[in-house]
Design brief:
Layout (H helix, E strand, L loop, with lengths): L6 E5 L3 H9 L4 E5 L14 H13 L3 E5 L9 H14 L3 E4 L2 H10 L5 E3 L8 H9 L4 E3 L6 H8 L3 E8 L11 H6 L16 E3 L16 E2 L4 H6 L4 E4 L6 H15 L5 H10 L28 E9 L2 E5 L9 E6 L2 E12 L2 E5 L9 E6 L1 H8 L5 E9 L6 E4 L2 E4 L5 E2 L7 H8 L7 E9 L2 E2 L2 H19 L23 E4 L6 E4 L15 E6 L5 H7 L8 E4 L3 H9 L3 E3 L8 H7 L5 E3 L6 H5 L6 E7 L2 E5 L16 E6 L4 E8 L5 E6 L3 E2 L7 E5 L10 E2 L9
Parallel strand pairs: 1-2, 1-10, 2-3, 3-4, 4-5, 5-6, 6-7, 7-10, 17-21, 23-24, 23-35, 24-25, 25-26, 26-27, 27-28, 28-29, 29-35, 34-36
Antiparallel strand pairs: 7-9, 8-31, 11-12, 11-16, 12-15, 13-14, 13-16, 14-15, 17-18, 18-19, 20-22, 30-33, 31-32, 32-33
Helix pairs in contact: 1-2, 1-9, 4-16, 5-6, 5-15, 9-10, 9-11, 10-11
């Protein structure tokens, strides 16, 4: 058994999912309200449901973290602060946020409020972790692309949470705008439509045919848990608020077995059958694997259990697995999906399959719905054991006692004329715990009293309702604190360009950060820094920073880096500044700052204080990829700077390659249409990074179209 205590943190898309996760061994669950949750499509919670889950969790000694981790606009600030205070006063153990400046404001108002920084904030290095801690966050959820070397550094600064299971995003967390710009459904607002899961082709040999070119396989780090704990990681996070309860429960049991030092092979099978995209990947923390992307199959592929053969002219699965009615199967041929299948009938050494598709010998049979595994996954294993002493004596009021709490009825009991209450009757009644996650051992003292069944049940319900308040006591509420922030709006007169072009400020975006030099430019020159930025990246550029007038950073780590090297900061669009607290906050640290590119011109105008810029034309970066879309096939790579990624509708998205530390390649994806020039109060920012591959299509973006 591993010595260091760790937390298994499970997703809860709805109330029943929370109960299943907690009763199968989770130490904590995270969930969202109906507003301000990065999973707006999940069932989510109102305050009544949240209260019930909080009671359930706290009785078990578990915790509940509430996600308010979308980007908040000015008109939503009042509701946001009200929601944060309400969920905290209800008993939430932490509040999960994307906006570091709103976190700082909550910390100023309520210093004892426990705040966790969402992975959407993109914390990927020690500088970011230190800033988050300074702003009042007690924990950071590390960006999924963060390498182990950085995870160790972050864990030495602040309590650390790492994803170990579930879906991976194609883009660096918080920096994906593809769904936003092609469909007006923003991932930063909880409404991502996952266009990364669609088919694309790329103009490189071997990648010309449509495939799931941006779709990562699911993450599974069960075999790496010990390394993560040794690095200082505290919380092992399971992704999946949009997935079925069976998946959540199976994942919890798998990691529970690992942490408890128990055999986990069977639990792993149950997990694969519950949900498995792409036969799992170890992600990017340990270096990119060849199977990071699930290029051939989209969605759940389950666990391989056998191969098809033909028996009496019928498709037969040779396997030791004993199929039953209700099981479901997916058939793969040459790694590609053929179709689904069900059990036809049992046979010696396997079973016959029924499918609407013509199955062939050698086809791979994958178990995607397993009745037995689902039932096992949902079987509860974690209840709080309590002793309940029941005293039902003639002439005395009925009494129930548990852990020092005494509950009495109002009326003394009378002796029964017939059919007295027995100890067995009382025990059977109190085994019904009214939804409390407790295992009751009763100690009964009775002498033949009479009590109607309805009165006995009412007494039991009253006792358990009162006991729940004792086992999960309410928190002393905070009183509301208000603190207004205002901005002086100014019309900007400057211009800046990313890539190349004439402007007051040139933001130099190198193709190779190992070959830095200051380009010729009459005005200020700022060095562009991507959102995924490691200590190794910093070491590579540190000696060259004096060549530039400052840095343009697309991640909040830029605040700490600029301060460390005593250079000006241009906070990029990647800061996702969407409200007055964020703008007022960044102005304390940055000379210039770019407003969120997901705001309308009207919304940007309301935030256009001194130093403000808005993306006003040119290319629109919609993804930062921390992985190689070509499977890290470096030996056969053509090493082009630009590629064309084309979707099934014929839209072309420029894909740009660049290098950071060492030989590591990273990629940026740009929108299929360039941004039409817009004019507001803020100074103008243009992006010409993908200039050679512009398609000629034009969009107004979000200039006039507000996100929900």
């Amino acid at each position: 058994m591993m010595e260091r205590k760790a937390e298994i943190l499970a997703p809860a898309g709805g109330e029943q999912a929370a109960y299943h996760a907690l009763s199968t061994g989770a130490d904590a669950v995270y969930l969202g309200l109906s507003r301000f949750s990065a999973r707006a499509g999940a069932e989510n919670f109102d305050m009544a449901a949240l209260g019930r889950v909080l009671r359930f969790a706290h009785i078990l000694g578990a915790k509940v973290y509430v996600a308010l981790n979308t980007l908040i606009k000015d008109e939503e600030l009042g509701d946001f602060f009200d929601a944060a205070l309400e969920v905290w006063n209800a008993g939430a153990d932490a509040i999960l946020l994307q906006d570091i400046f709103l976190g700082r404001e909550l910390h100023r108002r309520y210093p004892a409020m426990n705040l966790h920084l969402s992975t959407q904030a993109g914390c990927c290095n020690e500088m970011g972790a230190r800033l988050a801690k300074e702003f009042g966050f007690s924990r950071v959820v590390i960006a999924r692309e963060t390498p182990m070397s950085e995870i160790r550094r972050i864990a030495s600064v602040v309590e650390t949470e790492v994803f170990v299971q579930g879906a991976l995003c194609a883009s660096f967390s918080g920096q994906c705008y593809l769904s936003s710009f092609i469909g007006n459904n923003s991932g930063n607002r909880g409404r991502c439509k996952q266009p990364c899961r669609k088919k694309y082709c790329i103009d490189r040999a071997g990648f010309e045919h449509p495939a799931y070119a941006l779709s990562p396989a699911d993450l599974s780090l069960g075999g790496r848990v010990e390394e993560l704990l040794s690095a200082g990681v505290f919380s092992l996070k399971i992704e999946g608020r949009m997935r079925r309860d069976e998946y959540t429960a199976a994942a919890v049991k798998y990691y529970r077995a690992i942490l408890d030092g128990q055999p986990a092979k069977e639990a792993y099978s149950h997990l694969m059958r519950a949900y498995n995209r792409g036969d799992y990947s170890e992600g990017l923390a340990f270096g990119q694997e060849k199977n990071f992307l699930s290029r051939d199959v989209q969605g759940h592929i389950g666990e391989e259990i056998g191969r098809v053969s033909l028996r009496h002219g019928m498709p037969f699965c040779r396997t030791s697995y004993r199929a039953e009615r209700g099981d479901g199967f997916k058939i793969l041929r040459d790694k590609k999906e053929v179709g689904g299948a069900t059990l036809q009938s049992a046979g010696e050494g396997g079973f016959f399959l029924s499918s609407g598709e013509k199955l062939m010998a050698g086809d791979e049979v994958r178990l995607t719905t397993c009745v037995k595994s689902n039932a096992e996954a949902l079987r509860p294993v974690k209840l709080r054991k309590v002793d309940v002493t029941l005293q039902f004596l003639t002439g005395e009021k009925p009494r129930a006692t548990c852990e020092g709490f005494i509950y009495e009825g109002e009326t003394p009991l009378e002796a029964a004329q017939r059919a007295p209450l027995s100890a067995e009757d009382l025990t059977a009644c109190f085994q019904r715990t009214d939804g409390l996650p407790i295992e009751v051992h009763t100690i009964v003292e009775t002498d033949g009293v009479f009590l109607p069944r309805s009165a006995l049940n009412a007494f039991r319900r009253g006792f358990y309702a009162a006991l729940s308040d004792v086992l999960a006591p309410a928190r002393a509420p905070f009183t509301p604190v208000a603190r207004n922030v205002s901005l002086t709006i100014e019309r900007g007169t400057m211009s800046a360009v990313i890539g190349e072009g004439n402007a007051d400020i040139l933001i130099y975006k190198p193709d190779d950060f190992g070959k830095l030099s200051r380009p010729e430019h009459a005005g200020e020159v700022y060095l562009y820094l991507p959102p995924l930025f490691t200590s190794e990246d910093e070491e590579r550029i540190a000696e060259k920073l004096n060549l530039f007038d400052g840095v343009y950073a697309d991640g909040f780590f830029g605040i700490a880096l600029a301060k460390k090297y005593h250079i000006p900061l241009f906070a990029g669009t990647g800061f996702n500044l969407t409200n007055v607290y964020a703008v007022a906050g960044i102005r304390e640290y940055a000379k210039y700052f770019a407003l969120s590119k997901e705001l309308t011109v009207r919304e940007q105008n309301a935030l256009s204080a001194e130093g403000a810029f808005s993306l006003s034309g040119g290319d629109i970066k919609v993804m930062d990829l921390g992985f190689c879309p070509f499977g890290a096939t470096c030996k056969t790579c053509d090493k082009k700077k630009f590629y064309r990624l084309t979707d099934e509708e014929g839209r072309v998205f420029p894909l740009r390659r660049y290098r950071t530390s060492g030989m590591v390649c990273r990629f940026e994806l740009y929108n299929c249409a360039v941004l039409a020039e817009t004019e507001g109060y803020a100074s103008r920012l243009y992006d010409n990074s993908a200039l050679p591959l512009r398609t000629g299509n034009v969009t107004k973006g979000h200039a006039e179209r507000s996100l929900l």
